[in-house]
Amino acid sequence: MKTILITGGSRGIGRSAAVLAGARGWSVAVNYVGNEAAAEATADAVRGAGGRAIAVRGDVSVEADVLAMFDAAERELGKLDGVVVNAGIVAPPRKLAEMDAARLRRMFEINVLGAYFCAREAARRLGRAHHRSGGAVVLISSMAAQLGAPFEYVDYAGSKGAIDTLTVGLSKELGPEGVRVNAIRPGLIETEIHASGGTPDRATRLGVTTPLGRSGQPDEVGEAIVWLLSDAASYVSGTIVNVSGGR
Ligand code: NAP
Fold first, then answer.
1. 131 falls in which pLDDT band (50, 70, 90)?
2. With helix as H, strand as E and coil as C, how does the chain read?
3. Looking at the predicted structure, is the pLDDT value of residue 143 above 70?
4. Residue range 13-27: average pLDDT?
5. Scanning 5, 10, 54, 115, which has its CA 20 to 30 A from the CA of 23?
6. Residue 86 is part of which domain span?
7. pTM for the full model?
8. Domain of 64: which CATH number?
């Protein structure tokens, strides 16, 4: 039985990981930023699957929110064993030459600074110095980090490149404390993130061009997240797993 916090756990990939963790009997803090109804529905689904859950609001790009959400998770559910750094955004497809400063700032504040705040808080709370058994961190990158996402969102791609690099460095910092740090690069997954960027059919449309010939489902990423958190992955650290249908 584990206690975990998932940033952006209310919808999409984070929701899937939360419910799969619930099915293992784990306790899950489901973070969200604006969609309280979705977060409460996910928490209900975690409980329905057999776990414990709370929904906790917090903007990952706001340091005070991050500290408060980790505090709330540990107060309500107990010491954390795992953290999934998952919350992220995209923006409408455009060339870099057409991206304004507000868009770039928001992209890096949420996807990079937000991930660093959450990973830092995980580093402070997991590990043998703070906890008897160490723990695990899973960061959600993207295949865009390797593909570059030209003409769509090189800003997003770069923000995920930062996640890959953080995974490598943090795994080396935290390994001696018994904390495993890994990442996943999802490919084209059927979630609402594509609609939020103005291209709701993107995963379906481009999924047929991948080697497996289809888009992926959130549970196909959620399974990898839960495995990396679990003791079955006890010797896996510093790894970035592509869950992309071969893209
Ligand atoms: P999604 O369906 O759009 O869900 C996004 C989640 O993040 C929601 O729970 C949302 O909360 C939360 N969120 C957004 N901004 C936040 C903030 N500032 N602070 C806290 N929470 C915030 O997205 P998804 O497709 O599941 O994506 C999850 C992760 O996978 C992201 O990092 C994304 O970049 C990555 N990824 C996705 C794909 C894909 O094809 N779907 C591919 C590669 C990588 P609310 O419900 O409150 O809005």
1. low
2. CCEEEECCCCCHHHHHHHHHHHHCCCEEEEEECCCHHHHHHHHHHHHHHCCEEEEEECCCCCHHHHHHHHHHHHHHHCCCCEEEECCCCCCCCCCHHHCCHHHHHHHHHHHHHHHHHHHHHHHHHCCCCCCCCCEEEEEECCCHHHHCCCCCCHHHHHHHHHHHHHHHHHHHHHHHHCEEEEEEEECCECCCHHHHCCCCCHHHHHHCCCCCCCCECHHHHHHHHHHHHCHHHCCCCCCEEEECCCC
3. yes
4. 98
5. 115
6. 3-243
7. 0.98
8. 3.40.50.720
